[in-house]
From TrEMBL:
Active-site residues, record numbering mapped to chain: E111, E115
Gene Ontology annotations for the cellular component aspect, listed alphabetically: apoplast
Processing and modification events after translation: Contains at least one intrachain disulfide bond essential for its enzymatic activity.
Enzyme class: transferase
Protein name, as recorded: Xyloglucan endotransglucosylase/hydrolase
Similarity remark: Belongs to the glycosyl hydrolase 16 family.
UniProt xrefs under Pfam families: Glyco_hydro_16, XET_C
Main location: secreted
PROSITE patterns with a match to the protein in the record: GH16_1, GH16_2
Signal peptide: 1-26
Localization per record: Secreted, Cell wall; Secreted, Extracellular space, Apoplast
Species annotation: Durio zibethinus (Durian)
EC number from the UniProt entry: 2.4.1.207
Length: 298
């Protein structure tokens, strides 16, 4: 290791001040900063099916036989950390889908999906995740959750930067999609996305492949939301890069990969709760998709 002279206290103080003023590094928040729903979001359709509580810090989406409903972010974002606390439809939720996702606006769109597939009373919810890049999806993974998501609020988050996309449930990583452009796989890096959530009827596929239909006598079906958190690089829909690239906490070196503890937690989820992973589906994919070869736990 090369020898280095020790900096004087004055130089150390100057470097610290420059570091603080420049704003080139931010520590990750201990917890997401939640704001009222209307600060960053607006209803998308069926406004009368959204109910507001506690000054707009908590909302409910209602689904009946006439319509579901949903909302979207006012802004578009290119990278960031996005989370929502959700309490899913209780009881007989078969046929319903509660979704929380990011999506760009064009035909060759990028998309990062959480989809919660309802089930008959007593049967567990299925959480399906998917990643679209350049309009190509078909990257489904499905897990059972290790708790009842209808009894209390739980946090569902996405960390998205130039290196990877990570899905979190209560800060536990359940999926990683790495930047594999060098393998010829497109990665979402130049299309800003809005954040969406919706509650809708999908009984043609959502529960046992469409065998279980929605029981409308149980309507309205209600999903509750709070903890609306966005910490992203806000951009116009035409933007191709983030003006603060490399300067936000979620852009720093320690967020370019999971740490060893997070990899162990991801392996725990894969081992105990995964029920489908496209990476291991040799019927659909006789040849392992390129991005799966870079996944250390496959």
């Amino acid at each position: 290791m090369p020898c280095r002279s020790m900096a004087s206290p004055h130089w150390i103080l100057l470097l610290v001040l420059l570091f603080i003023v420049s704003g080139t590094m931010g520590a990750p928040p201990k917890r997401p900063v939640a704001v009222p729903f209307g600060r960053n979001y607006a209803p998308t359709w069926a406004l009368d099916h959204i109910k507001y509580y506690n000054g707009g810090s908590e909302i409910e989406l209602h689904l009946d036989k006439y319509t579901g409903t949903g909302f979207q972010s006012k802004g578009s974002y290119l990278f960031g950390h996005f989370s929502m606390q959700i309490k899913l439809v209780p009881g007989d939720s078969a046929g319903t889908v509660t979704a929380f996702y990011l999506s760009s606006q064009n035909s060759e769109h990028d998309e990062i999906d959480f989809e919660f597939l309802g089930n008959r009373t007593g049967q567990p919810y299925i959480l399906q995740t998917n990643v679209f890049t350049g309009g190509k999806g078909d990257r489904e993974q499905r897990i059972y959750l290790w708790f009842d998501p209808t009894k209390a609020y739980h946090s569902y988050s996405v960390l998205w930067n130039m290196y990877l996309v990570v899905f979190f449930v209560d800060d536990i990583p359940i999926r990683v999609f790495k930047n594999c452009k060098d393998l010829g796989v497109r990665f979402p890096f130049n299309q800003p996305m809005k954040i969406y959530s919706s509650l809708w009827n999908a009984d043609d596929w959502a529960t046992r492949g469409g065998l279980e239909k929605t029981d409308w006598s149980k309507a309205p079906f209600i999903a509750a939301y709070k903890g609306f958190h966005i910490d992203g690089c806000e951009s116009s829909v035409e933007a191709k890069f983030c003006a603060t690239q490399g300067k936000r906490w979620w852009d720093q070196k320690e967020f370019q990969d999971l740490d060893s503890y997070q990899w162990r937690r991801l392996l725990w989820v894969r081992t105990k709760f995964t029920i489908y992973n496209y990476c291991t589906d040799r019927v659909r994919y006789p040849t392992v998709p390129p991005e799966c070869r870079r996944d250390r736990d496959i």
